[in-house]
Amino acid sequence: MIDRSNPRIPTVDIDSQFLDRWSPRAFDPTPLSDEQLAALFEAARWAPSCYNDQPWLFLYAVTAEDRARFAEALLPANQPWAARAPLLLFVLCRRRFAHNSQENRHAPFDAGAAWLSLALQARKLGLHAHAMAGFSRQKAYEILGVPTEDYDIMAAVAVGRRGAAELLPADVAAREKPSERKPLAEVAKEGKY
After folding, report:
1. Higher pLDDT, 11 or 128
2. Is 47 left (phi over 0), alpha (psi -120 to 50) or beta?
3. Per-residue DSSP letters for 34-75?
4. Which pLDDT score, from 0 to 100, does residue 1 have?
């Protein structure tokens, strides 16, 4: 039985960083420091990857002008809250290996590892990161000027300090809490399916 009053109780002892990481929508627009920005991307830089290819690329916006431009690619439901975040970024992955130009089917997996590294570093800095699938890929390619044949745009991400949930629309504010997780037996099985 899941304790609905606190959905962040693990079934076994794990490091608190995994429980502490969640994806709020209420952001304080206070800018991040250059040191915070560098630490986020430095953490992502050290993620593991197939052949050490490091196929990820983070294109980011911190100025009000650039954040507004990046937000244009987000779906309308994400625009109001994500545009308040002091950092908007897109996570991309290079489609081909650098060493032999062959298709890298592992690139999305590796970019996911880099994104998680960034998200965990955000928490270490007192920040939160919220990844979004809700964006127009076509619009993102236009805004970012990224060659579609070279890169796949995996996600948009808003990063910043938590803001007041009262600033969100009522339906969004009602969801502004850490979410539950499936039981462990549903996500890990020994042997075979």
Report:
1. 128
2. beta
3. HHHHHHHHHHHHT---GGG---EEEEEE-SHHHHHHHHTTB-
4. 38
Specify the residue for token string 């209420």. 26
φ, ψ dihedrals at 103, nearest 5°? -55, 135
Contact 160, 85 (CB under 8 A): yes
Interaxial angle between packed helices 107-124 and 34-45, expressed in degrees from 0 to 180 and rounded to the nearest 10: 140
| Whole-model pTM over 0.85 | yes
Specify the higher pLDDT residue, 171 or 159.
159
Q: To the nearest 10°, the Cα dihedral for 135, 138, 140, 144?
A: 170
Please check whether residue 175 is in contact with residue 165, taking contact to mean a CB–CB distance below 8 angstroms: no
Distance CA 186, CA 33 (A): 40
- For 127-155, the pLDDT digits (tens) are 999 999 999 999 999 999 999 999 999 99
Judge whether 99 and 53 are in contact, CB under 8 Å: yes
CA dihedral 186, 171, 25, 19 (to 10 degrees): -30
Number of C-beta neighbours around residue 60 at 10 A: 17
Tokens of 154: 């995996």
Residue 173: the pLDDT is 86
93 pLDDT band, cuts 50/70/90, is very high
Question: How many Cα atoms within 13 Å fall on the side-chain side of residue 174?
Answer: 3
